[in-house]
Amino acid sequence: MALGCALAVWACQGEPQKAETSKVDLKEVLPGTWETKFFQIKMPTHNGSDSTSVFEASEEYWEAKFQVKPYRTYFGPDQKYRTAYRGLQGHLISESRGVWNAFGDTLMMIQKDGTLQYKLLVEKGQAHFSALLDWDQDGEEDDEYYMIYRLVSKSSAE
Q1: What is the CATH number of the domain that holds 35?
Q2: Which residue segment(s) compose the domain that 104 sits in?
Q3: Which of 10, 49, 98, 104 is the most buried (most CB within 10 A)?
C-alpha cells in the first residue's frame, strides 16, 4: 500500500517485528475499519549503500511528523477494500481501492497497479502485517515491511 503524502523521515533502527501465524479466520475478523497504529520498513542496501535504512512511524507522533491523519483501511465483508489518506482537518487527500482475499495467514490485496501479499496476525483488536517488498524500488524484494492496524469499528462504512 502506498503511504500517501508527507512521509519522509528516515532513521537507523533495530530489527522489525514480524507477524506470526494467524490462529483466526481472517475472512471473519478482518471486515471493519482499521487505523494505522505503527509502520516500519527496513531497507538493506538502500540507495546502493552497505547500511540499512529504517523508516518508522508510530501513532503518537504521526500527525506532528507527517501533517496527515493515520490512514484508515475499510475491509468490506464483500472482500472489497479501500484505504483513505486524510489531512489534519479530515479532508480526503487520496484513496486506493481494490479487492482482498485471505488464505490461512496470508492476505492478498489486489489493486489496479498490482497485488500485495502479507502475512497477517489478528489478535486483541490489532492486525499485524508483514511482508518482503521492493519498497525502495532497487529491483530487490528485500525490504522488510511491518505494520500494525487497530480495529476502530466492525463496520466498513465511513
Answers
A1: 2.40.128.20
A2: 26-153
A3: 98
Q: How far, in Å, CA of 8 to CA of 93, rounded?
A: 17
79: left (phi over 0), alpha (psi -120 to 50) or beta: left
Q: Is the pTM of this model over 0.85?
A: no
Residue-wise pLDDT for 64-97, tens only, equals 888 999 999 999 999 999 999 999 999 999 999 9
Residue at 17 is within a domain: no
User: CA angle, 16 as apex, 27 and 53 as ends, to 5°?
Assistant: 125
Cα separation, 79 vs 76, in Å, equals 5
Q: Which amino acid is at 42?
A: K
The yes-or-no verdict on residue 61 having pLDDT over 90 is no
State how far the Cα of 121 lies from the Cα of 81, in Å rounded to an integer. 18
CA distance 5 to 131: 22
